[in-house]
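Predict the assembly for these two chains.
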Amino acid sequence: MLSRGGGRARPAEGNGFELFSWYFFRVSGLLLIFFAIFHVVIMHVVNTVDEIDYAFVADRWGSPFWKVYDFLLLTLALLHGINGARLSIDDYIRSNGWRMVALTTLWVTAFVFMVIGAMAIVTFDPVAFDAAHAGR
Amino acid sequence: MLRVYRGREGMISWALHRLTGLGVLMFLLIHIADIYVIGYGPEEFDSLLFIYHSLGFRLMEVMLVAALYYHAINGVRIILIDFWEGAVLIQRKLFYWGIAIFFLTFIPTAILMLRPLF
């Protein structure tokens, strides 16, 4: 249900998940203001896409700080976005069957993208890659 | 829709919030997929960068930033309304303040983002 200002009213009853989702939306949103906007400013304003290539990412991810930063950004942004898509599905898909199909697709998508995103950050190792391809 | 429901600023802010949120989510999924390619090494990753350098994608990146800024600013407005009782009484004023902050932050960002083109 919408509140007067166009936000969602805090769920008053029902299971704990909706209340948790309501708070998560707001807390992750506040954190993302810093994480996502600094990310965009660094990647598109301080640098531009012309400077960003494999070497640029390798340099950045050489630092554990940026690996942790990007992992937090990935997790918060994906869960915040998926939660928004979940509420959109609840709002627009009225038939129970199709809503179940859409929600299942949504959670599978969330899981797959969380896994490939985490793999990209955690397993990134340019030194090992160079060593493995040195003989090529 | 606007003529039937007449929700005014509250509804317009909500519709834009949902539209920009879903738009940013779409970009996020594309972005996770392209960063996944980095695990395949420098040649494979760098061979895809022409997409990011194309004019169409640069304009989409500017639209992404517009969506992100609006979503962030209106998100703060929603949180103010949720946790501060006085805010709901001035929610319309907060909407226009948000729009003003949006243009003040977005226009310089867009100019800086597109500076390689000038």
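The interface with chain B takes residues 2-7, 10, 26, 29-30, 32-33, 36-37, 40-41, 44-45, 48-50, 52-55, 57, 74, 77-78, 81-82, 84-85, 88, 109, 113, 116-117, 119-120, 123-124, 126, 129, 133 of chain A (CB under 8 Å). Chain A has one domain: 16-125.
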